[in-house]
């Protein structure tokens, strides 16, 4: 009898083990494949990860349709990212900027200095800030005889010597130069950088280390060059080899037969001593980067790949922005005929270029304008621009790429202002002169690899510095930036 009972029990057990749910058997667990975008928190609706052409990196269907196979490791690794802005406490106009190795940020403030001069606003405690109250901004242009306010204020910080150059254009007829070598505590007497044969407009200024190609003897560690829109069919440029005391006569900032028009984008100096600037092509078509290897004395044209992108028919159509990274690679940005931002790079000083990449994020942008670009380590680049998200709602955007030379570089774009806090609502604002934006904006990368973007919050008429509060570093070992507290309207 006992044997019979045992046999029945054994049979029941065998049947149960073959059936789901019997005797509480464990269910098979299918492990989900992890994603490089699995961060420890959700991605903001003002942050986008994308590839060239506005392909959403988080949309597997869109990625497959674009035939993209991306390696999101190494320098192409995504990081959780956010951005914000911080007010300088004063208005601005055409907000050029610079950063010193003492971690001070500088921006111009038109007409708010002593006796109505252009103020040079220094923001301390903002770089690597941990508490919002740690930063402050003050005018450091304090001289017994301040230079009168100018039409186009300009400030530039020499990346190699920390010299702060204040460059004022007066009544479209001439320019004065002052500098400080001690963080604005004192300033040189003004010197003049004026060619009497030319009206002056739309100036830009840059420096680069002196090299043997510059011909003239090195009386200062760096060579300085400015270019302007003058009485010529192309920009005119002048050089200083003694730190800004004296300047050469203005020369053609392009081949002498060039018909590019006089408006030029920001000058940029590279570690090897070359200078670059962006402009329309010499034939009046497309865009080109113009290069000088001899301290601004002569220039050559290097055409950008704009055949597919076209060029924007707006105020910014004259300008192709350029940046040089720490390894002397050249990066160019421009607006296409669709009013979207495009990017290409050169590994040979502008002689040849990569294919153009459209770098706007996968969101509903009507159009963009006011392009500006900067770079840190080799292949690590930041782009700034304003964009209309619909109904003339103008926001500002920061886009970074940390593996620009890879087969499929990942772009991270962050809107620097929160929804409901637009920078302007004026029709066509990003396509024309608009409030404190003026003719141009500016950018730079600090020593910690964080990009900084200078612009204006036009609705509040306050100059602002925008940056990544979190995101990837653009210098040093690949990794995340140290987190910074958000700013926003509370800082205006």
Q: Can you describe this structure?
A:
This protein has 492 residues and is mainly beta. It has a single domain (37-491), classed as Neuraminidase. The protein is 4% helix and 32% strand. The strands form seven sheets. The protein has a six-stranded antiparallel beta sheet with strand order 2-1-27-26-25-24. It has a four-stranded antiparallel beta sheet with strand order 3-30-29-28, with no helix packed on it. Strands 4-5-6-7 form a four-stranded antiparallel beta sheet, with no helix packed on it.
In round numbers, the mean pLDDT is 91
- Can you tell me the number of structural domains? 1
CATH class: Mainly Beta
Largest sheet: 6 strands, antiparallel
Strand arrangement within the widest β-sheet reads 2-1-27-26-25-24
Classify the helix fraction into a percent range. under 10%
> What share of the residues does DSSP label as strand, in percent?
25-35%
- Which CATH-level-2 architecture? 6 Propeller
Given as residue ranges, the uncertain stretches (5+ residues, pLDDT < 50) are 1-25
Our Rg estimate from Cα atoms comes to: 27 Å
Instruction: Count all strands and give the number.
Output: 30
CATH names the topology as: Neuraminidase
Count of discrete alpha- or pi-helical segments spanning 4 or more residues: 2
Which structural class matches the secondary elements? mainly beta
| End-to-end CA span | 92 Å
Instruction: Name the shape in a single word.
Output: globular
């Amino acid at each position: 009898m006992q044997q019979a009972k045992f046999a029945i029990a054994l049979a029941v057990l065998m049947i149960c083990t073959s059936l789901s749910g019997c005797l509480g058997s464990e269910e098979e667990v299918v492990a989900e494949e992890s994603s490089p975008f699995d961060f420890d928190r959700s991605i903001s609706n003002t942050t986008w990860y994308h590839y060239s052409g506005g392909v959403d990196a988080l949309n597997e269907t869109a990625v497959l349709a674009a035939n993209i196979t991306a390696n999101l490791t190494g320098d192409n690794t995504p990081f959780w990212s956010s951005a914000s802005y911080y007010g300088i406490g004063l208005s601005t106009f055409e907000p050029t900027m610079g950063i010193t190795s003492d971690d001070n940020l500088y921006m111009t403030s038109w007409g708010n200095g002593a006796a109505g001069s252009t103020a040079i606003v220094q923001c301390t405690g903002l770089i690597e800030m941990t508490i919002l109250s740690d930063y402050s901004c003050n005018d450091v242009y304090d001289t017994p005889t301040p230079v009168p306010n100018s039409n186009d204020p300009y400030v530039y910080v020499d990346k190699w010597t920390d010299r702060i150059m204040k460059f004022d254009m007066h009544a479209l007829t001439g320019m004065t130069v002052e500098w400080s070598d001690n963080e604005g505590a004192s300033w040189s007497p003004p010197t003049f950088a004026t060619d009497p044969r030319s009206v002056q407009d739309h100036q830009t200024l840059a420096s680069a280390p002196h090299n043997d190609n510059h011909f003239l003897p090195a009386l200062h560690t760096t060579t300085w060059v400015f270019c302007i829109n003058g009485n010529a069919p192309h920009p005119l440029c002048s050089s200083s080899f003694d730190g800004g005391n004296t300047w050469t006569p203005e020369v053609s900032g392009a081949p002498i037969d060039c018909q590019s028009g006089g408006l030029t984008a920001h000058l940029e100096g590279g570690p090897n001593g070359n200078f670059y600037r962006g402009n329309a092509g010499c034939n009046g078509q497309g865009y080109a980067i113009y290069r000088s290897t001899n301290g601004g004395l002569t220039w050559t044209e290097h055409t950008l790949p704009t055949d597919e992108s076209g060029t924007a028919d707006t105020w910014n159509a004259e300008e192709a922005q350029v940046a040089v990274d720490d390894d002397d690679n050249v990066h160019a940005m421009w607006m296409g005929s669709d009013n979207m931002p495009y990017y290409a790079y050169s590994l040979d000083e502008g002689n040849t270029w990569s294919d153009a990449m459209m770098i706007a994020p996968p969101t509903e942008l009507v159009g963009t304008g006011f392009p500006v670009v900067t770079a840190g380590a080799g292949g690590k680049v930041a782009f700034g621009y304003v964009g209309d998200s619909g109904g003339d709602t103008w926001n500002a955007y920061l886009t970074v790429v940390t593996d620009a030379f890879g087969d499929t570089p990942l772009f991270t774009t962050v809107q620097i202002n929160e929804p409901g806090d637009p920078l302007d609502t004026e029709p066509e604002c990003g396509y024309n002169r608009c409030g404190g934006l003026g003719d141009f904006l500016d950018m730079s990368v600090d020593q910690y690899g964080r990009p900084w973007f200078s612009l204006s919050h036009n609705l509040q008429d306050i100059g602002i510095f925008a940056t990544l509060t979190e995101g990837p570093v653009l210098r040093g070992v690949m990794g995340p930036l140290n987190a910074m507290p958000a700013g926003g309207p509370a800082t205006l």
